[in-house]
Every structure is written in C-alpha cells, then in structure tokens.
Amino acid sequence: MWGTTCGAIAAYKVRPFQKELERSYGIFRKQWMRYPIMAGAFSMAYYVGTQLPARLLRHTRKDGVTNDTYSSRYDLVGRFRLF
C-alpha cells in the first residue's frame, strides 16, 4: 500500500512537468507519450517506496548493517515482494 501511495503521488507531481514539456517539444504532445512518462514516474516511486522502509527499519535493529540488509536479501518473502 505504501509503494502504491508513493507511486501515485509521484505520478501526480510529474504531471506539471509533463505539461511544460508538451508546450516546448513536439514529441511530448503525442497522445502515446503521456503514458510512458507517468508509468516511469509511478514505477520508480513504487520501487523506492517498497524498498526504503524495509531497508531503513532494518538498520534500527541491533543487527545493524549486514550484507543481506544492504543487498535487500533479508528474507525469502522480501526477494519476491515485487513480483
């Protein structure tokens, strides 16, 4: 849920930049070009939104920073969370 919220906010915030690009460049006026920009912003923010809490909250524990925490391999479910 957190990742989806982050993605929706990012897609909402990218819209004014996209409108400015539409005024300046002809390719951004194309109807099909709106979707990749919004999808890219959503997917990047979704990925960060799902990875950031797990990585930050793991650092506050007694374990500290380990190789599994740093490389995001802290549990079996976490490896397949995005899929």
Question: Explain this structure to me?
Answer:
The chain has four helices and no strands. With 83 residues, the protein is mainly alpha-helical. The protein has one domain. The protein starts with a helix and ends with a helix.
Describe the structure using short key phrases.
single chain, 83 residues, mainly alpha, 4 helices, 69% helix
Q: Indicate the radius of gyration in whole angstroms.
A: 17 Å
User: Low-confidence stretches at least 5 residues in length (pLDDT < 50)?
Assistant: none
User: What is the SS-derived class?
Assistant: mainly alpha
- Shape verdict: elongated
User: How far from one another are the termini?
Assistant: 15 Å
The helix/strand series, from N terminus to C terminus, equals HHHH
Please tally the β strands and state the result.
0
- Total discrete domains: 1
Helix content: 55-70%
Determine the strand fraction and express it as a percent band.
under 5%
For this structure, the quaternary state is single chain
Biggest beta sheet summary: none
Mean pLDDT across every amino acid position: 77
Q: How many DSSP H or I helices?
A: 4
Provide a concise account of the structure shown.
The chain has helices spanning 2-24, 34-59, 67-70, 76-79. The protein is mainly α.
